[in-house]
Amino acid sequence: MNEIEKFKQEDFLDEIFENEAKGLLSDIMSSTYLVSLLFSFDEEQGKKAIDYIVGIFNECYKLGHLKVATSSYEQMLCGYSIIFIHPHHQSAYLHKIHIGEQFRGRGLGTEMLQSLNESFGALGLICNHDRIKFYERNGFRCVSNLEVPDNDGFKLSKHMYTGLYMMSNSQNVDSCPVFFLNDADLRIIGGIS
C-alpha cells in the first residue's frame, strides 16, 4: 500500500469507527434480552456509549490488533472491512464488510472479500445462517455454531451472539480471535456500575 492510499484510509477511520459503534449500539438495543439495559437511554448517554465503543476500536487499531481496508472513489468512502488480528493466533477475524447503500449491488463486497481471502491465509468470521451460502461461494466453510465464552463475563452479552455461525477460509483453522463485547463493556455502555 502506498502512502497516498494509507493517508486516504486514515482519513476515513473516524467515520468507520463511529459507524461501527452505532451499529453495535443498535444491535445491543435490538436484543430483547438487553433492551432493559438501555431502556431509558437519552442522547447524551448514546453519545457516551458510541464514544466508548469508538475508543475500543481506536485502541485496537493503535496496538495493531485491528486493520481496516477501504474502497473509495473521489474522496468518498464506498465501503470498508474491519479485521481483528490477535498476536497469539495464526488467524485473523473479519468483523465486518460494509458497503455504502449507494454502492451496493456492484460486486464491491465480493471483491473486498476475495482480496481479504488472498491477503489472509487463515481468516475467520461469524455470520447469520442466511449469509452462509454467500461466504461458501467465496471460499469459506462453516466450522461450527459460535460459542461465546461460558463464564461470568458473558452472562448478558452472550445473547447478542446467539444463532451465529463460525466460518473460515482455511482447513487448518477451527477457531480464530473473535471480537466480543463482554458484560463489563455493556455495563459501561449502559451507564450501570
Automatic annotation (TrEMBL):
* Record-linked Gene3D superfamilies: 3.40.630.30
Extract the Pfam families matched here. Acetyltransf_7
Q: Which residues form the N-acetyltransferase domain?
A: 24-161
State the InterPro entries in the record: Acyl_CoA_acyltransferase, GNAT_dom
Q: What is this protein called?
A: GNAT family N-acetyltransferase
State the taxonomy lineage. Bacteria, Pseudomonadati, Pseudomonadota, Gammaproteobacteria, Alteromonadales
